[in-house]
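Protocol step 4 of 6: structure prediction from sequence.
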Amino acid sequence: MPRVYISLGSNQGNPEENIKQALQIIDRAPETNIIRVSSLYLTEPVGYEDQPWFHNCVAEIETRLTPHGLLRMLQETENYLGRVRTVKWGPRTIDLDILLYEHLQIDDELLIIPHPRMKERSFVMIPLGEIAGDAVFPDGKQVGEALKELNDGKKYSCIPRKLW
């Protein structure tokens, strides 16, 4: 089954519980299986900054779903958990993004893989590096290499506990 990396983030309600619920939904789906999950990180918001800090992590999963099928499942999970899209990069109960899907490159009106801004964001790259530092982007660069080059100036801290 294909290996996929997904970022999870939340800064509304009970962020840690929102992420745990999303992980449970993903793992209980018959087409997906969680392999491992990074530590939880508390991170400064990007873009729209007048909001609470985010709780973020990255999960490695196996899936029988196509990239677009997985996207639909993740959007259904966001909707189920109360995600409302009002402000770009604004507050949210849950945000689920496909970062990498094997070595595929997709760029269409619905989906871009690898995630287009992931290499610029510590809230994605640090937890991804924790669980998959040797994973390789389609351009041949390892996650660990890209992480060393990252300097987005954002603050973060690791919350010393695992969610999975």
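Step 5 (inspection) to follow. Strands lie at 3-10, 32-37, 39-43, 54-63, 95-101, 106-107, 112-113, 156-162.
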